[in-house]
Amino acid sequence: MASDLPRIAFAGLGAMGYGMASRLVKSGYPVTGFDVYQPSLDRFTKENKGASAAKTPREAAQGALFLIVMVATSTQATPLLFEPHTGAVAGLRENATIIICSTVAPAYITNEIQNLLKEKSRSDIRLIDAPVSGGSSRAAEGSLSVFASGEKPHLEHARKILETLSAPGKLYELGELGNGSKAKLIHQVFAGVNIAMTSEAMGLAALTGWDTREAYGYLKDGRGGSWMFGHRGGYMLQKESERGSYSAVTIIAKDVVSSFYPPLPSTISKL
Predict the structure, then answer these.
(1) Could you give the count of Cα atoms lying within 13 Å of 86 in the half-sphere of its Cβ?
(2) CA 63 to chain centroid
């Protein structure tokens, strides 16, 4: 029953976050959503029976046992959590859990967030680093890859929620806090390289006069193919009228370069 499940505050209802939050509602969790974009909040409550929306992060977190953060950057996450008048941390119950699903630098989790929690006298809060991968459709299906790290009892405490969001066998428990973000950022380097090479390969096919649809069908099944080529290459062939909502290239560029510490080798950063 829904009443047996803990209340979750969910901050960040973008392409990925919306699907994740909706998945949790459909799985019976009472979820209060927050986003700076009002139409996303309106859609969330309209399309998900039983979901609620809040005007501020603190209102969303009031009395919640779990807070999931799925905003784009650490610059967005810090005020969401710690802003003096509207920050979520002050609204959370004692011994609540914050799950950071955003792709951010590992040091942001292990240093900045932990230090700010101590400054705010909220060392009682459990902190989990759990960035995700898989795209908006898999977010809605609950079939993401989740790179989870943190203290073992904290991960165990959040296991059912993390399993609800992840595909079978795709909840990776990676040890100490920060390891999840390290794994996700390395994963994003691979993804970013594949996206760049997908564009180059399809452009080269067009330049040689090879029918791009035929080239795509052949290349995606060849030894040099990849999941990212099959996924993004298909988008490139769609007519504008057929296109839906896709991940912005700027997001993976942020993940590959801006979020990584120490700085990436110059060859990778130029991609």
Answers:
(1) 12
(2) 24
Q: Which are the contacts of 83, defined by CB distance < 8 A and separation ≥ 6? A: 57
Q: For residues 218 and 204, what is the distance between their CA atoms, to the nearest angstrom?
A: 14
98: region left, alpha or beta (phi > 0 left; psi from -120 to 50 alpha): beta
DSSP state of 149: B
- Per DSSP bridges, beta strands 132-133 and 144-148 are antiparallel
Kindly report the pTM of this predicted structure: 0.86
pLDDT of 112-126, one tens digit each?
A: 999 999 999 999 999
> Of the candidates 156, 82, 102, which has an alpha carbon nearest to the alpha carbon of residue 126?
156
> Rounded to an integer, what distance in angstroms lies between the CA atom of residue 226 and that of residue 221?
8
Q: Given phi > 0 = left and psi -120 to 50 = alpha, else beta, which region is 64?
A: beta
pLDDT tens for 72-106 read 999 999 999 999 999 999 999 999 999 999 999 99
The phi, psi pair for 53, rounded to 5°, reads -130, 155
Phi and psi at 214, nearest 5°, equal -65, -40
CB atoms under 10 Å from CB of 228, counted, come to: 18
Please, which residues have CB within 8 angstroms of residue 188's CB and are 6 or more apart in sequence? 103, 252, 255, 256
Q: Is residue 101 within 8 Å of residue 169, measured between CB atoms? A: no
